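Report of the visiting student (M.T.), summer placement. My assignment was to run the structure pipeline on a short list of targets and document each run. The first record concerns Transcriptional regulator WhiB.
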Amino acid sequence: MPAMPNDLVSARRWPPVAGRRDLACNPDNASAFYSPDSRGFSDYSRALALCWRCPARRPCLAWALDTEQRHGVWGGTTPTDRAAMLTDRAALADLARE
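After the run finished, the structure tokens were exported:
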């Protein structure tokens, strides 16, 4: 993995869990967070169970929403979960502007 940047603009590109071997989403378990099954469907149940116990779940989810991650499990959510959250966030922002 490349060195992680120190400045805030570049750091936004890196999830708060990057390089954390002490967390369940370390490279040894990466397949649970991304891999589709033989039919092309993703079974995220193992990853979701690991995420819900993780101390970095909230910052990880915030990063995934801020960077609009469309693949894998981030912060205890699936891509479908995050898409719904982003839609809700956009709707709330529209209402606030009215």
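The chain has one domain: 8-97. The longest helix spans residues 79-97. I thank the supervising group for their guidance throughout the placement.
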